[in-house]
Write a structure and sequence with these properties.
The chain is of the alpha/beta class and about 400 residues long. It has 14 helices and 14 strands.
């Protein structure tokens, strides 16, 4: 299953704008709550060094893109309905929100860092809303969602663990597998909470709620996109520091600025690549005074102040949080080609610690099922099924098919 990043937050904080900027898609954008009802799906791209420079070849990418030796590797994004307090009880579009997030591997939480969106997602006076409360409310909603699933039939689960001598971790995994939670997540959370896995029938509601908090942190790691950064005051920059003290990575972002730069670049008005700290105007004649003024504003209030719009940084930071590496499978380790003579055609994300056989399965189930060996294109050495893949490896898979 493809890795999914959930883009979450209250209504009207810039989620769809962030999604459009990150994926260059076109989800509906409007200044009122619940614009996004059905989940939008798109592809974001992570910058990685392409092996083409090292091997001195001209690559012909298939599932990704290469620009001047930088490979843009795809990862799926899902922009879901805005979340309001008590979503776990079905308020607003809560049930839809939570259902869409089931398989998300990590979350980018979009917050209105300027404090100009109230808890229901309505525009309010600049600085009126406390962004720290937005973080806490999303934590609470997801915790309550997890807790409700665990609590349902909990007594029967705890009893089964004791009477049938089954591990509570395994029984909970059966219950939570639809959330993308694995037995390893549960085991680590139980250990961190110092709960006795032999006596789950003794765990009280407070302990179960704390367990769900740990499960959320482990299974749905979250990055905070502190959006509308061009409007940030010193007070609200300090708020971002307070959120960092809670253990979160916080990235100042301006989704509107990134989308404006992307659109200008697509119209060939400017030369700009996502993640860069500046742009170059390439077509003065077509640029209107209004557009020039807007571009100057972005440069001074966003790029000069924060070093980028933050959108690309969010994408790449969440990949780091997930401990992902990139591998390049080929069918000819000498010429780095596939059967269609494409050079370094594909780039795939894998979890750090993945093996050559894991890569084979990533490419195609048949390759994994009939795996014989693999060959490292750099060393031309044969590697086995359990060989750990490193970031940037170029690998040929040999299978009996």
């Amino acid at each position: 299953m493809a890795m999914q990043i959930g883009i979450v937050g209250k209504p009207n904080v810039g989620k769809s704008t962030f999604f459009n900027a990150a994926t260059n898609a076109h989800a509906e954008i409007a200044n009122y709550p619940f614009t996004t009802i059905d989940a939008n799906r798109g592809v974001m791209y992570v910058r990685k060094p392409c092996p083409c420079k090292e091997f001195n070849v001209t690559c012909t990418p298939h599932n990704s893109e290469c620009k001047n030796g930088t490979r843009y590797v795809p990862i799926e994004a899902i922009d879901v309905a805005g979340l309001v307090p008590d979503a776990c009880k079905g308020k607003g579009l809560g049930n839809k929100f939570l259902d869409d997030l089931r398989q998300a591997d990590a979350l980018i939480h979009i917050i209105d860092g300027s404090g100009s969106t109230d808890e229901e997602g309505n525009p309010c006076e600049l600085g009126r809303n406390d962004p720290i409360k937005d973080v806490e409310f999303l934590e609470r909603e997801i915790n309550q969602w997890f807790f409700g699933i665990i609590k349902k039939n909990w007594e029967n689960i705890a009893r089964r663990s004791k009477l049938e001598n089954k591990k509570i971790e395994s029984l909970l995994e059966e219950k939570l597998t639809g959330l993308g939670i694995k037995e390893e997540h549960i085991k680590n959370s139980i250990r961190k909470m110092n709960l006795n896995p032999e006596t789950p029938d003794k765990w009280n509601d407070e302990e179960l709620l704390k367990l769900t908090d740990e499960l959320r942190k482990i299974s749905k790691p979250m990055l905070i996109a502190f959006n509308k950064s061009d409007k940030l005051t010193e007070e609200f920059i300090r708020k971002a520091d307070e959120i960092r003290k809670k253990g979160y990575k916080v990235v100042p972002t301006s989704a509107e600025s990134e989308l404006a730069l992307s659109n200008a670049a697509n119209k060939e008005l400017i030369d700009y690549k996502p993640g860069e700290k500046s742009f170059k105007i390439t077509n003065n004649e077509e640029l209107t005074d209004k557009q020039e003024k807007a571009l100057n504003y972005i440069q001074t209030h966003v790029l000069d102040k924060f070093g980028s719009t933050g959108i690309q940084k969010c994408i790449e930071e969440i990949v780091k949080m997930l401990d992902l590496i990139v591998a390049y499978p080929v069918e000819d380790e000498t010429h780095l080609k596939d059967k269609k003579d494409r050079i370094l055609p594909d780039a795939f994300f894998l979890k750090k610690g993945s093996t050559a056989k894991d890569l084979a399965y990533k490419v195609h189930t048949d390759l994994g099922d009939h795996f014989i060996r693999a060959i490292d294109a750099r060393t031309h050495r044969v590697i086995g099924a359990d060989h750990e893949i490193k970031d940037g490896d170029v690998i040929r898979i040999v299978a009996d098919i």
